[in-house]
């Protein structure tokens, strides 16, 4: 009898975490490494949020809380959804978890049965398919293309829906492509979903506030109120508020679903850190002016990276609407030989050779379900990005 669960064999470790770990190891060995693999802002958590956490510690707010969040944070989340998205949720419709990942995982664990299918547009965040597999479901990938700006079309969504479909996981702006769906594009998708009442929508709106000129963020239940009773709207403080390590995500949805998610969380981690919860209250209710300033900085970096990568031999880099990633195609590099003598057969080989030859760490596209591409995070300094892009240009220019 095997000791480890058979379920574990269905999933793999996170490639993005593996790339970051590899970069750290090489730096520790003395290599000059620029890591473009991490999915977290380089900005610091704002001081008012830090002070709220310190105040919580001093006031002794360090005990267990309700399993899925303190009332003050649930109220702040409900107010945020009303203020920014025009969505009416009561606090009892809100769940707070240890990061957005736990919230997504709880929802899948609470709803999936063997045979249930979850639609996931590719390229996708690396964790979506594995969370579905851990929950006992079957991921069903919807392919997109560079030509469609890595956005799923209504026809492709319609064709993917079947009798076993339970969820669509929808991420905009996207990790890894940065693609964002405007109102009309999203309305075309929600029109499809209205015709299939057995399909629920799980949004991942984590990059809502990292959106650029010409793109106005909207979320599915906001565009089509008729879907609100079968939508779980997920967000968090990690990206916009530079609070990745604080581990607070949240969601709002129908009471029955939120209650089922609470049951899962009460028997796994129980409550998120009480201190982090009080910090998140301040994040959602305190000053918001810095959000636009940081989005402007990210847009400047995006423009730098897109311009420089499009000057590299063999690369084609589309312009994303949001998030802090680009997802260039390496189609023009396939079949060429790296300085080491190795042939670039796929995007994983490309990223491996790039790291060895130039010390630039990026994540290969197969990890996100779409090849031949790679993901670059531009959540680092302008100087580091310019240096990294020059190295990528040099590497591509050396391919023969």
Automatic annotation (TrEMBL):
<dbReference type="Pfam" id="PF00155">
    <property type="entry name" value="Aminotran_1_2"/>
</dbReference>
<keyword id="KW-0032">Aminotransferase</keyword>
<feature type="domain" description="Aminotransferase class I/classII large">
    <location>
        <begin position="32"/>
        <end position="392"/>
    </location>
</feature>
<dbReference type="InterPro" id="IPR015422">
    <property type="entry name" value="PyrdxlP-dep_Trfase_small"/>
</dbReference>
<dbReference type="InterPro" id="IPR015421">
    <property type="entry name" value="PyrdxlP-dep_Trfase_major"/>
</dbReference>
<keyword id="KW-0808">Transferase</keyword>
<dbReference type="InterPro" id="IPR015424">
    <property type="entry name" value="PyrdxlP-dep_Trfase"/>
</dbReference>
<dbReference type="InterPro" id="IPR050596">
    <property type="entry name" value="AspAT/PAT-like"/>
</dbReference>
<dbReference type="InterPro" id="IPR004839">
    <property type="entry name" value="Aminotransferase_I/II_large"/>
</dbReference>
<protein>
    <recommendedName>
        <fullName>Aminotransferase</fullName>
        <ecNumber>2.6.1.-</ecNumber>
    </recommendedName>
</protein>
<dbReference type="InterPro" id="IPR004838">
    <property type="entry name" value="NHTrfase_class1_PyrdxlP-BS"/>
</dbReference>
<keyword id="KW-0663">Pyridoxal phosphate</keyword>
<dbReference type="GO" id="GO:0008483">
    <property type="term" value="F:transaminase activity"/>
</dbReference>
<comment type="similarity">
    <text>Belongs to the class-I pyridoxal-phosphate-dependent aminotransferase family.</text>
</comment>
């Amino acid at each position: 009898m095997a000791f480890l669960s058979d379920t574990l064999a269905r999933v793999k470790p996170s490639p993005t975490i593996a790339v970051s770990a590899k970069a750290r190891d090489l730096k520790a060995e003395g290599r000059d490494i620029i890591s473009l693999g991490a999915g977290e802002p380089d900005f610091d958590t704002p001081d008012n949020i830090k002070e709220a956490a310190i105040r919580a510690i001093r006031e002794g707010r360090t005990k267990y809380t309700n399993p899925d969040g303190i009332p003050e944070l649930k109220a702040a989340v409900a107010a945020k959804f009303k203020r920014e998205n025009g969505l009416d949720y009561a606090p009892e419709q809100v769940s707070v978890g240890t990061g957005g990942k736990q919230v997504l995982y709880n929802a899948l664990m609470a709803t999936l049965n063997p045979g249930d299918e979850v639609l996931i547009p590719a390229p996708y965040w690396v964790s979506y398919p594995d969370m579905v597999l851990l929950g006992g479901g079957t991921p069903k990938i919807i392919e997109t293309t560079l030509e469609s700006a890595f956005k799923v079309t209504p026809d492709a969504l319609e064709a993917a829906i079947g009798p076993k479909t339970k969820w669509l996981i929808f991420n905009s702006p996207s990790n890894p492509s940065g693609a964002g769906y405007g109102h009309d594009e999203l309305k075309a998708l929600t029109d499809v979903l209205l015709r299939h009442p057995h399909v629920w929508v799980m949004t991942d709106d984590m990059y809502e506030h990292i959106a650029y000129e010409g793109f106005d963020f909207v979320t599915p239940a906001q565009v089509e109120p008729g879907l609100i009773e079968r939508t779980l709207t997920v967000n968090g403080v990690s990206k916009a508020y530079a609070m990745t390590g604080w581990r607070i995500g949240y969601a709002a949805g129908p009471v029955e679903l939120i209650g089922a998610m609470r049951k899962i969380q009460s028997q796994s981690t129980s409550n998120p850190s009480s201190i982090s919860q009080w910090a998140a209250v301040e994040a959602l209710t305190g000053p918001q002016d810095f959000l636009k300033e940081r989005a402007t900085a990210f847009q400047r970096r995006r423009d730098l990276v897109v311009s420089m990568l499009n000057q590299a031999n063999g690369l084609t880099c589309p312009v994303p609407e949001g998030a802090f990633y680009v997802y260039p195609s390496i189609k023009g590099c396939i079949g060429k030989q790296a300085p080491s003598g190795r042939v670039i057969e796929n995007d994983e080989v490309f990223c491996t050779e790039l790291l060895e030859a130039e010390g630039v760490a990026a994540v290969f596209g197969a990890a996100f379900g779409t090849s031949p591409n790679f993901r670059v995070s531009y959540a680092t300094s302008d100087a580091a990005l310019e240096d990294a892009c020059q190295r990528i240009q040099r590497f591509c220019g050396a391919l023969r």
